[in-house]
Amino acid sequence: MQTNAERVLRQLANNISAMDEVESIGISASKKELPKAGEGDIDVFIYCGKIPELEKRQAVIKQTGSVIQAGKMNVFEGGHWGVGDLVYIDGIETWLMYFTVKETLCNVEAILNGDYPDKLDNYYYPIGRCAMLKNIHVLYDKSEFLHTLKARLSIYPNDLAKALASYHLNMLEDTEDLVRAVSRKDVLFYHFAMDLAIDHFLQALFAINKVYFPSRKRTLEFIKKFDRKPERCEERLLDSLQLGSCAETVAASCEQWSKLVAELRGLCEEQ
Q1: Do 94 and 169 belong together in one domain?
Q2: What is the domain extent for residue 239?
Q3: Which of 2, 107, 206, 261 could staple 213 via S-S, CB 3.0–4.6 A?
Q4: Helix (H, G, I), strand (E, B) or coil at 96
Q5: Separation between Cα atoms, residue 112 and residue 91, nearest integer Å
Protein backbone atom coordinates (compact mmCIF):
# COMPACT_ATOMS: atom_id res chain seq x y z
CA MET A 1 0.00 0.00 0.00
CA GLN A 2 1.33 3.42 -0.95
CA THR A 3 2.00 5.87 1.84
CA ASN A 4 0.92 9.48 1.56
CA ALA A 5 4.53 10.52 1.01
CA GLU A 6 4.84 8.07 -1.90
CA ARG A 7 1.64 9.41 -3.50
CA VAL A 8 2.82 13.00 -3.12
CA LEU A 9 6.26 12.16 -4.51
CA ARG A 10 4.66 10.51 -7.53
CA GLN A 11 2.43 13.55 -8.09
CA LEU A 12 5.41 15.90 -7.80
CA ALA A 13 7.43 13.77 -10.24
CA ASN A 14 4.55 13.81 -12.73
CA ASN A 15 4.39 17.60 -12.56
CA ILE A 16 8.16 17.93 -12.97
CA SER A 17 8.15 15.53 -15.93
CA ALA A 18 5.70 17.83 -17.74
CA MET A 19 8.45 20.42 -18.19
CA ASP A 20 9.79 20.19 -21.73
CA GLU A 21 13.41 20.19 -20.58
CA VAL A 22 13.06 17.10 -18.37
CA GLU A 23 14.18 13.75 -19.78
CA SER A 24 14.37 11.44 -16.75
CA ILE A 25 13.62 11.38 -13.02
CA GLY A 26 14.83 8.90 -10.40
CA ILE A 27 15.27 8.62 -6.66
CA SER A 28 18.20 7.11 -4.82
CA ALA A 29 17.16 4.86 -2.00
CA SER A 30 18.98 2.28 0.09
CA LYS A 31 15.66 0.59 0.86
CA LYS A 32 12.27 0.31 -0.81
CA GLU A 33 10.38 2.43 1.72
CA LEU A 34 10.74 6.19 1.91
CA PRO A 35 12.17 7.51 5.18
CA LYS A 36 9.97 9.08 7.80
CA ALA A 37 10.42 12.68 8.86
CA GLY A 38 13.63 13.01 10.84
CA GLU A 39 14.95 9.62 9.72
CA GLY A 40 16.47 10.71 6.44
CA ASP A 41 15.81 12.63 3.26
CA ILE A 42 14.63 11.93 -0.28
CA ASP A 43 17.06 12.62 -3.12
CA VAL A 44 15.32 13.20 -6.44
CA PHE A 45 17.66 13.26 -9.43
CA ILE A 46 16.24 15.09 -12.46
CA TYR A 47 18.04 14.86 -15.81
CA CYS A 48 17.35 17.46 -18.46
CA GLY A 49 18.34 18.68 -21.91
CA LYS A 50 18.91 21.98 -20.13
CA ILE A 51 18.12 23.07 -16.57
CA PRO A 52 14.64 24.66 -16.30
CA GLU A 53 14.66 28.30 -15.22
CA LEU A 54 14.01 29.10 -11.55
CA GLU A 55 10.55 30.54 -12.22
CA LYS A 56 9.51 27.38 -14.05
CA ARG A 57 10.70 25.15 -11.21
CA GLN A 58 8.88 27.32 -8.68
CA ALA A 59 5.67 27.09 -10.71
CA VAL A 60 5.83 23.28 -10.66
CA ILE A 61 6.15 23.27 -6.88
CA LYS A 62 3.18 25.64 -6.55
CA GLN A 63 1.21 23.50 -8.99
CA THR A 64 1.65 20.49 -6.71
CA GLY A 65 -0.24 22.46 -4.07
CA SER A 66 -0.38 22.28 -0.30
CA VAL A 67 0.58 18.59 -0.21
CA ILE A 68 4.21 19.71 -0.25
CA GLN A 69 5.81 22.52 1.70
CA ALA A 70 8.18 24.83 -0.12
CA GLY A 71 11.68 25.09 1.27
CA LYS A 72 14.46 27.03 -0.40
CA MET A 73 15.22 27.35 -4.08
CA ASN A 74 18.70 27.26 -5.61
CA VAL A 75 20.30 25.80 -2.48
CA PHE A 76 22.85 24.35 -4.89
CA GLU A 77 23.73 26.17 -8.07
CA GLY A 78 25.77 23.52 -9.86
CA GLY A 79 28.60 21.15 -9.00
CA HIS A 80 28.36 17.67 -7.53
CA TRP A 81 24.72 18.07 -6.53
CA GLY A 82 23.47 19.93 -9.57
CA VAL A 83 21.00 22.78 -9.28
CA GLY A 84 19.16 21.96 -6.08
CA ASP A 85 15.78 22.98 -4.66
CA LEU A 86 14.51 21.92 -1.24
CA VAL A 87 10.89 21.00 -0.46
CA TYR A 88 9.20 18.98 2.27
CA ILE A 89 6.86 16.03 1.80
CA ASP A 90 5.08 15.05 5.03
CA GLY A 91 7.92 16.81 6.83
CA ILE A 92 10.54 14.77 4.94
CA GLU A 93 13.40 16.84 3.54
CA THR A 94 13.21 16.32 -0.22
CA TRP A 95 15.97 17.49 -2.55
CA LEU A 96 15.14 18.17 -6.19
CA MET A 97 18.49 18.06 -7.99
CA TYR A 98 18.67 19.04 -11.65
CA PHE A 99 21.47 17.91 -13.98
CA THR A 100 21.92 18.02 -17.73
CA VAL A 101 22.13 14.71 -19.55
CA LYS A 102 25.30 15.86 -21.30
CA GLU A 103 27.22 16.71 -18.10
CA THR A 104 26.07 13.49 -16.47
CA LEU A 105 27.31 11.33 -19.34
CA CYS A 106 30.65 13.17 -19.40
CA ASN A 107 31.00 12.79 -15.64
CA VAL A 108 30.20 9.06 -15.67
CA GLU A 109 32.62 8.49 -18.54
CA ALA A 110 35.42 10.25 -16.64
CA ILE A 111 34.72 8.23 -13.49
CA LEU A 112 34.73 4.93 -15.38
CA ASN A 113 38.00 5.96 -17.04
CA GLY A 114 39.54 6.27 -13.59
CA ASP A 115 39.94 10.06 -13.70
CA TYR A 116 38.54 10.42 -10.16
CA PRO A 117 40.03 7.62 -8.05
CA ASP A 118 39.45 9.30 -4.68
CA LYS A 119 36.98 11.41 -2.73
CA LEU A 120 36.57 15.11 -3.41
CA ASP A 121 35.30 18.14 -1.50
CA ASN A 122 34.09 17.07 1.93
CA TYR A 123 33.79 13.33 1.30
CA TYR A 124 32.02 13.35 -2.05
CA TYR A 125 32.89 10.08 -3.80
CA PRO A 126 32.64 10.30 -7.61
CA ILE A 127 32.50 6.49 -7.77
CA GLY A 128 29.47 6.76 -5.48
CA ARG A 129 27.58 8.51 -8.25
CA CYS A 130 27.98 5.33 -10.32
CA ALA A 131 26.68 3.29 -7.38
CA MET A 132 23.64 5.57 -7.14
CA LEU A 133 22.89 5.51 -10.86
CA LYS A 134 23.29 1.73 -11.07
CA ASN A 135 20.61 1.28 -8.41
CA ILE A 136 18.45 4.36 -8.99
CA HIS A 137 14.67 3.85 -8.82
CA VAL A 138 13.32 5.27 -12.07
CA LEU A 139 10.15 7.36 -11.87
CA TYR A 140 10.18 8.79 -15.39
CA ASP A 141 12.38 8.07 -18.38
CA LYS A 142 11.16 9.71 -21.58
CA SER A 143 14.25 8.92 -23.63
CA GLU A 144 15.35 5.77 -21.74
CA PHE A 145 18.38 7.71 -20.51
CA LEU A 146 18.37 6.21 -17.02
CA HIS A 147 17.59 2.68 -18.10
CA THR A 148 20.42 2.79 -20.65
CA LEU A 149 22.81 4.16 -18.06
CA LYS A 150 21.78 1.53 -15.50
CA ALA A 151 22.51 -1.19 -18.07
CA ARG A 152 25.92 0.35 -18.81
CA LEU A 153 26.81 0.43 -15.11
CA SER A 154 25.58 -3.09 -14.41
CA ILE A 155 29.04 -4.43 -15.32
CA TYR A 156 31.95 -3.06 -13.32
CA PRO A 157 34.88 -2.44 -15.74
CA ASN A 158 37.92 -4.62 -15.07
CA ASP A 159 40.34 -1.79 -15.83
CA LEU A 160 38.59 0.46 -13.34
CA ALA A 161 38.79 -2.18 -10.62
CA LYS A 162 42.52 -2.60 -11.21
CA ALA A 163 43.16 1.14 -11.33
CA LEU A 164 41.26 1.92 -8.13
CA ALA A 165 42.71 -1.00 -6.19
CA SER A 166 46.24 -0.02 -7.25
CA TYR A 167 45.72 3.65 -6.39
CA HIS A 168 44.34 3.03 -2.91
CA LEU A 169 46.84 0.32 -2.02
CA ASN A 170 49.62 2.70 -3.02
CA MET A 171 48.11 5.33 -0.72
CA LEU A 172 48.13 2.79 2.12
CA GLU A 173 51.90 2.48 1.82
CA ASP A 174 52.26 5.88 3.50
CA THR A 175 52.17 4.87 7.18
CA GLU A 176 54.19 7.78 8.57
CA ASP A 177 51.37 9.35 10.57
CA LEU A 178 50.23 6.00 11.98
CA VAL A 179 53.75 5.17 13.12
CA ARG A 180 54.23 8.59 14.69
CA ALA A 181 50.88 8.36 16.49
CA VAL A 182 51.77 4.93 17.89
CA SER A 183 55.20 6.04 19.07
CA ARG A 184 53.61 8.99 20.89
CA LYS A 185 50.60 6.98 22.11
CA ASP A 186 48.53 9.86 20.72
CA VAL A 187 45.05 8.37 20.41
CA LEU A 188 43.36 11.31 18.68
CA PHE A 189 46.15 11.68 16.13
CA TYR A 190 46.04 7.92 15.59
CA HIS A 191 42.31 8.03 14.86
CA PHE A 192 42.82 10.87 12.40
CA ALA A 193 45.43 8.81 10.54
CA MET A 194 43.29 5.67 10.76
CA ASP A 195 40.27 7.42 9.28
CA LEU A 196 42.29 8.32 6.19
CA ALA A 197 43.76 4.82 5.98
CA ILE A 198 40.39 3.08 6.41
CA ASP A 199 39.00 5.19 3.58
CA HIS A 200 41.66 3.88 1.22
CA PHE A 201 41.28 0.32 2.54
CA LEU A 202 37.53 0.31 1.92
CA GLN A 203 37.81 1.74 -1.57
CA ALA A 204 40.43 -0.87 -2.51
CA LEU A 205 38.28 -3.62 -0.99
CA PHE A 206 35.19 -2.52 -2.93
CA ALA A 207 37.24 -2.29 -6.13
CA ILE A 208 38.58 -5.84 -5.96
CA ASN A 209 35.01 -7.03 -5.39
CA LYS A 210 33.85 -4.92 -8.36
CA VAL A 211 31.28 -3.00 -6.36
CA TYR A 212 30.96 0.76 -6.82
CA PHE A 213 31.88 2.35 -3.49
CA PRO A 214 28.72 4.25 -2.44
CA SER A 215 29.92 6.11 0.66
CA ARG A 216 31.00 5.34 4.21
CA LYS A 217 27.43 4.44 5.22
CA ARG A 218 26.41 0.83 5.95
CA THR A 219 29.90 -0.38 5.07
CA LEU A 220 29.79 -3.53 7.19
CA GLU A 221 26.59 -4.65 5.46
CA PHE A 222 28.40 -4.56 2.12
CA ILE A 223 31.55 -6.26 3.39
CA LYS A 224 29.55 -9.18 4.80
CA LYS A 225 28.46 -10.01 1.24
CA PHE A 226 31.93 -9.81 -0.32
CA ASP A 227 33.68 -12.97 -1.49
CA ARG A 228 37.15 -11.43 -1.68
CA LYS A 229 38.25 -10.00 1.64
CA PRO A 230 40.76 -10.65 4.43
CA GLU A 231 39.74 -13.40 6.82
CA ARG A 232 37.27 -12.16 9.48
CA CYS A 233 37.53 -8.76 7.85
CA GLU A 234 34.63 -7.03 9.62
CA GLU A 235 35.60 -8.34 13.05
CA ARG A 236 39.24 -7.34 12.67
CA LEU A 237 38.36 -3.87 11.39
CA LEU A 238 36.26 -3.26 14.47
CA ASP A 239 38.98 -4.71 16.71
CA SER A 240 41.51 -2.31 15.20
CA LEU A 241 39.29 0.63 15.99
CA GLN A 242 38.55 -0.55 19.51
CA LEU A 243 42.21 -1.18 20.30
CA GLY A 244 43.08 2.21 18.87
CA SER A 245 40.89 3.98 21.41
CA CYS A 246 43.37 3.44 24.27
CA ALA A 247 46.96 4.67 24.49
CA GLU A 248 48.11 1.36 25.95
CA THR A 249 46.70 -0.73 23.07
CA VAL A 250 47.25 1.60 20.13
CA ALA A 251 50.34 -0.38 19.07
CA ALA A 252 48.28 -3.60 18.98
CA SER A 253 45.71 -1.78 16.85
CA CYS A 254 48.37 -0.75 14.35
CA GLU A 255 49.73 -4.30 14.20
CA GLN A 256 46.25 -5.68 13.54
CA TRP A 257 45.70 -3.03 10.90
CA SER A 258 49.01 -3.74 9.13
CA LYS A 259 48.09 -7.43 8.80
CA LEU A 260 44.71 -6.54 7.30
CA VAL A 261 46.34 -4.28 4.73
CA ALA A 262 48.92 -6.95 3.86
CA GLU A 263 46.17 -9.53 3.28
CA LEU A 264 44.20 -7.10 1.15
CA ARG A 265 47.29 -6.43 -0.94
CA GLY A 266 47.77 -10.17 -1.36
CA LEU A 267 44.20 -10.57 -2.61
CA CYS A 268 44.73 -7.79 -5.10
CA GLU A 269 47.92 -9.37 -6.41
CA GLU A 270 46.14 -12.71 -6.83
CA GLN A 271 43.45 -11.01 -8.89
Answers
A1: no
A2: 158-270
A3: 206
A4: strand
A5: 37
**Rounded to two decimals, what is the model's pTM?**
0.92
Burial class (CB in 10 A: 0-12, 13-18, 19+), 138: middle
Distance CA 134, CA 141 (A): 15
Tell me, yes or no, whether 140 and 174 share the same domain: no
How far apart CA 83 and CA 172 sit, in angstroms, is 36
Kindly write down the DSSP assignment for every residue of 122-152, as one continuous string. TTB-HHHHHHHHHH-EEEEETTSHHHHHHHH
Same domain, 14 and 145: yes
Is the separation of the CB atoms in 115 and 130 below 8 Å?
Answer: no
Within the chain, which residues score under 70 in pLDDT?
A: 1-2, 29-32, 271
Residue-wise pLDDT for 208-222, tens only, equals 999 999 988 889 999
Domain count of the fold of the chain: 2
Domain shared by 126 and 43, yes or no = yes
Are β-strands 76-77 and 68-70 bridged in parallel, bridged antiparallel, or unpaired?
Answer: unpaired
**Among candidate residues 43, 24, 171, the one with its CA nearest the CA of residue 96:** 43
265 φ, ψ (degrees, to nearest 5): -60, -40
Residue 182, amino acid: V
